[in-house]
Amino acid sequence: DISLDPSAPEGAVLGSDSRAVVTVVDNDAVTFQLNQTVYSVTEGSVASFTVVKMGESALPVSLVLDTVGDTAISGLDFQSVSTVLTFGPNESEKTVTVSVFDDSILEGSERFFVDISLDPSAPEGAVLGSDSRAVVTVVDNDVVTVEIIPVNLNVSETEGTANLIVQRIGETTQAVTVFYTTVEGTATADVDFTSVAGDITILPNQTTTPLQVGILGDDIFEGTESFSVRLILPTGELLSDSVVLSENRSTANIHILDNDFVTIQFRMQEITVLEGDSATLTVEKIGTTTLETSVLLATKNSSAVSALDFIPQSTRVIFAAGEAEKQIVIQTLTDDIQESPEVFMAELSDASDGVMLENSVANISIIDNNDILVQFAVSSLNVSEGSGFANISVNKVGRTAIPVTVQFATQDGSAVAGADYEESSGSITFQPDEHTKFIIVAITEDAVLENAESFSVALSSSGSDATLGIDMMEVFILNNDVVVVTFEAGNYRVTEGGSIIIPVRLEGSSAINVAVDVTTSSGSALDGSDYTGLSQTIIFTPSMTEVNITVATIDDQIAEPEENFLVNLSTDSSVVQLGISEANVIIEDNDSVSIEFQSAMYNVTEGINQFASLTVVKTGESSLPVEVLLNTKEDSAQPISDFEELSEVLQFSGSETEKTVTVIIKDDQIVEPVEQLTVELSLPSTPPPLVDVKLGAIDTTTVEIRDNDDALVRFRDASLTVREGRDKVVVVTVEKIGITSQPVTVTLATQNGTANSNTDFEAFSGMLQLQGNESVKSVEIDIKDDEIAEITKSFSVELSIPAGQQAILGSPSTLTVQIEDNDSVTLTFKRPLYTVVEGNVSVDLTVQLVGSSSEEVTGILDTFGGNATAALDYIAVTSSIITLGSLGGPNEQVVPVSILADETFEGPEYFEVNLRLASSVPPTLNVSLGDSVAEVVIVDDTDDEVKFVFKEPEYKVREGTNQVVTVAVVKEGKTVLETFVSYATRNGTAKAGTDYIAASGTLVFSSGVSERVINVSIIDDDSIEVDEQFFVDLSNGESTTVVIEDNDILPVDTIVVNDTVIADPLLTVPLLIANKTGLAFDKVSLCYEIHGDPDTYFNFISDECASVNAHYGVLDTKVHVVDEVAVKAIDSDEQCLDIVVDAETCSAVVSGVNISGTYNSGSVTVRKYTSSNKRVRISLPNCSPNQLVLWVICKEGPIYKGSSTSGKFIKFVVARGLNLRPKSHGLIGQFWNIPVEISRYNYNATDERGDPLYLLRLPVTSSSSARQFSAVLFRKTWEKQLTPCFYTGSSQGGPPPYKIEGYKDSIIQGRYKDYIVSGWNDTSFAHSIFRESDCNSIN
Q: Distance between CA 31 and CA 788 in Å, rounded?
């Protein structure tokens, strides 16, 4: 605005344009983006997304945040959000929460997007950053349980199959696969059951799937036997972390019920014995068993009476597994009675399990010892066809003095003389002392399978000298021939939907029908779904040798892996042997699935948050998930600049038909033609797919990216500032955003502002041309210089585009150039000091302006301060205005100040006059103040001198806690004025910060005070030292001395601390002190504590030929102790030794041998001590002349005195003589027995108990480099401490030389966990240098 000054003459008026409207064009931008672009959030939780504002804005800015579904579905898997975020001027971030919904369906990880975009109301200058989209992965939290049922199953040996069910509990959208395997129990694999192992898959639309195991029959009685089928989770498979096995139903126990038995019988059921002789009964077991069997044998009266005619029997007949017969003797009794033959019985009963009784009763005939009886020994006889003859026994019962003769003859039955046996007849004669004779009949063998055949042998007597008993015997010829029935082959293949013909052959001759059973059983192929099951009996008549079995398979429309089922032969016949009794039939699938893109071309426009959604479709159904690889490939579009590369595995479940893939398109500012990228599908090469997967015709698609950019021309800067004289020109830059196919021409022209083209700059008007690939071009405008101080001026440059150009005009199109003046003027007092004698006079102060100015410069003067008093000593001046400058105006002005007289003795007094710039001085006018304060000294006519001195020339103080020395200063002389003197401490042999606390200041003496004191605090330390001194100085040159007397005494010569309250071991080692600064010890021990995890091995020491491990055991939940130390060492004979010491027995085991006393091998020595304080000493070569010596001390009892926790543990492990090389490693191997320089820490640090900290420096090489760490060394070492005497942190910074920043830093390289090993003999931790290869090469 302009307005008339009141002094304007009449006739001066304002025109219509008395106000100018100035539009400030903003050249600033604020950027909005997500502070994170990748999120992983679990189902059922809430995700928080933060949008940040970078830059400042005076206006509110609104953005829109939207959730966008991908594989995760909006409203189903996550909360649909679309909200407006408004940032106020002072707001820098806003957070939006999105709920992720929980479900009970196992579906794997899914994802959705969170996008931000500018609201249409957003002001110009608000832009989105590169991170405007967040990808959110929803991690599934659901678990399905897989079980096998029933967990106990009884199955008969004859059933052939154990049928189980694998069941899934919980929903899922993907197939679930588990492994299964059979495990032997009392049943033997491939003897009692078919050993199987494999995988089984439950499809998403199924909850169960059958699992069958073959049961194998035999002819052996063996009782109930058991085996199990166990489920196992696969590792590294899809969903493996989300599938669990039932706690109680992951194993099924199958009990095979035996269907076999053995027969126990009397071999002979009719026995004749002479009165007074014993009868021998043979009990035989027919059949095979692996078990012990038994039967009860008891006699029973008939016409013969027990105790009169025979001695009764009742006994348990026991057969071991391999025994086939037992003999029982029954004694008959004599009497003097003439009597007919009498009979009693022996009976079998009460058989054990699996035993069948046949021929269970034997009749024993007692012949009176006065009669002669001739008879067959048995009434029937079994003889094998291959035995060659039948040996038939004939017995004489009774005594005679003359020979007895009987006749015999064979008779045909089903067996025919001449074909099956040789006809025979004749007589046999018993001499008086003979009782048994034999008839031999030849048996004829053939090779034909036939039923048993028989013939008879009859006795006859022509005289009356003998009575015939059993006079007819039937001889059974038992078949000894077998035939073999077998499958032609053990493996067959058939295409799904076809039938398989399996030949069954009979090998050998048979005169009778031969029957075998044929059954099918499921493997991975299922009866009714994949094939039609079969169960039938085939019969070979005597003329047949081959029968064909046909099994039909079922065609479906599902692509699946090869499946199998079994065809089995079985028979109960003992004359039929099985050859290949199991045929495995593999069904080859004839179905396939095809995968391809839905379209061969996709179009998308370049822009922020743009992406191409590609649909991949699967044609056909599969029983298993199938995979295809998808990869982007550059064409004219380039990765990073035009699109984000994508390489992804797409997995389709059996029922899925399509998947959507997102390719993110990048935005740029380049004008460019349509660009393309290619997306390809391919099949994985490993592992090969289990089902037939093919790529469809559209296995490659093209994504076409259309450009959204226009070329934009603007000034690079909205304003520029130059300095007159320094900058000869101003460089104006025009920038073109976007690449154009033609040059772009623009026009530039300067416009006057407060700066004028005649005096301040050279006018410019002209054109610039930017080529198609040019982005910037500049022009220079000359700036003029003068010698006059003036305000900042400005002019503008206008940008325009002629018609017909391939560009649009952007902002800024006007450039403002500000010219800062390089000339200056100084407003100053001509003199800074004026002296005047007290009296009624005035002092003239001169103010001058140095230099030329185009503007008036106004200054203001004020009197202030000093010890002179306004109105008593001088007349105050307040806001006195002076105006200098302007071209042609005055450059100097005098200001008088009145001085007053008084009668008071007061010495020299002074006041000051301040010069300051008025607010009316233009801020851009370069005006500075020179001498802006003038001091006026009023001199009194008289004044007395005063002097300051210390009361004592020397002060003494004893070092100690809270000690202070008091130093007195005395004022000599009198004055009515307040007087001052300054003081400061000064180092001597005592140092500030170490021995005392530095002090300085000013002592003020009022008119009646003659003495003041200075207090200096003394610092206590633990160093043994001579008396030290420092000084206190006054500003007038006076000085005094303060002597500090030392209060320290020598502590004990060794620092040892017991174990800590948590029972961790302290590893104690003597340190060689290189420089005992601050410690007057002849010997110092360092304790090192390791806080280890329970049941963990860690490495103590690792060198090239020595490695020491220790193990942490657990005494209770809070107490962990070392309970084992193990050493691996290479001795001087290049032998590799293992040495183990455990806390339980404190035994020393060297390479598997428990030693007692001393063991030597090369340079390795192990000594076992047997005193009450059990310990083991181990000396190792350690790859150098300096040996490594370990003392392992075994303890039993409380972990420390008064502790309620006790047990066996290794209390201390002590080592010495370690190599001084820096590459030695292990938790203690990096620093033991190295010369140490100990001094106080470099600042006054103490631990929580108030104990001082020390800095220890360990040289690691022969050079001057050293590793530094700190230790807490307790002063009262004879008391039990609850913390270790040395503490380290958990991490280490950098390779040697090591440098620590605080006293709790670690000295080890890396972290404690880097030294954990897998076992007592493991040398492979992170920093190990042990030569394990040498161990492997030693025999």
A: 44
Residue that has been written with the tokens 């069904």 in this structure: 587
SS3 of 1043-1083: the string is EEECCCCCCCCCCCCCCCCCCCCEEEEEECEEECCCCCCCC
pLDDT value of residue 689 = 79
Q: What pTM value is reported for the model?
A: 0.34
Query: β-pairing, 693-695 with 647-652?
Result: unpaired
Cβ–Cβ < 8 Å for 1053, 1275: no
- Residue 611 tokens read as 């992406």
Residue listed under structure tokens 């024993």: 364
Burial letters for 389-427: b for 16+ Cβ neighbours within 10 Å, e otherwise? ebebebbbbbeeeeebebebebebeebeeeebbeebeee
Q: Give me the pLDDT at residue 389, please.
A: 92
Angstrom distance (rounded) from CA 1182 to CA 1221: 11
Rounded Cα gap, residues 781 and 67, in angstroms: 52
Q: Taking the chain (1339 residues) in consecutive chunks of 10 residues, what is each chunk's mean pLDDT?
A: 87 84 82 93 93 90 94 91 92 94 83 93 88 92 89 88 92 87 92 91 89 88 89 70 85 89 90 88 90 94 92 94 92 79 93 90 84 84 89 84 88 91 92 89 87 91 76 89 91 94 92 92 91 93 91 90 93 89 92 93 86 92 89 92 91 88 85 86 84 92 84 90 90 85 87 90 91 87 88 93 83 93 89 81 89 88 89 89 83 89 72 91 88 85 70 90 90 75 92 91 86 92 72 92 74 27 37 44 47 76 84 74 87 84 88 86 82 75 65 78 77 54 54 48 45 49 42 36 35 33 48 80 84 67
Amino acid identity for residue 921 in this structure:
V
Do 1173 and 1146 form a contact (C-beta atoms < 8 A)?
Answer: no
Lookup: tokens for 1304? 């709790």
Beta partners for residue 62, in sequence order: 86
How confident is the model at residue 461, as a pLDDT?
A: 85
Short-list 837, 884, 861, CA closest to 934: 861
Neighbours of 723 (CB within 10 A): 14
What is the residue whose two structure tokens read 């919904």? 101
What are the beta bridge partners of residue 474?
A: 380, 456
Cα–Cα distance for residue pair 1209/1213, rounded to 1 Å? 11
Residue 1115 makes CB contacts below 8 A (sequence gap 6+) with 1063, 1121, 1199, 1205, 1206, 1207, 1209
Query: What angle (nearest 5°) sits at the alpha carbon of residue 1060, between those of residues 1058 and 1061?
Result: 125
Sheet strands (E) in 140-224: 144-149, 152-156, 161-169, 171-172, 176-184, 197-202, 208-214, 220-221
Q: CA of 536: how far to CAs of 166, 219, 418, 518, in Å? A: 29, 21, 41, 5
Residues listed for the chain: 1339
The bridge status of strand 436-442 relative to strand 453-460 is unpaired
CB 281 within 8 A of CB 328: yes
Classify residue 709 by its DSSP letter. -
| CA neighbor of 1270 nearest in space, from 1301, 1234, 1224, 1309 | 1301
**CA angle (365, 366, 368) in 5-degree steps:** 140
pLDDT in the model for residue 617: 95
**Tokens found for residue 619:** 């044609």
CB 505 within 8 A of CB 488: yes
How far is residue 1105's CA from residue 1100's CA, in Å, rounded to a whole number?
14
Closest by CA to 535, choosing from 578, 565, 491, 498, is 565
- What is the torsion angle, in degrees rounded to the nearest 10, for the CA atoms of residue 968, residue 969, residue 975 and residue 980? -120
Sign of the alpha-carbon torsion through 521, 522, 527, 532? negative
For residue 1337, the surrounding DSSP H or E stretch is helix 1332-1337
Residue-level pLDDT at 1117:
66
Eight-state DSSP code of residue 71 = S
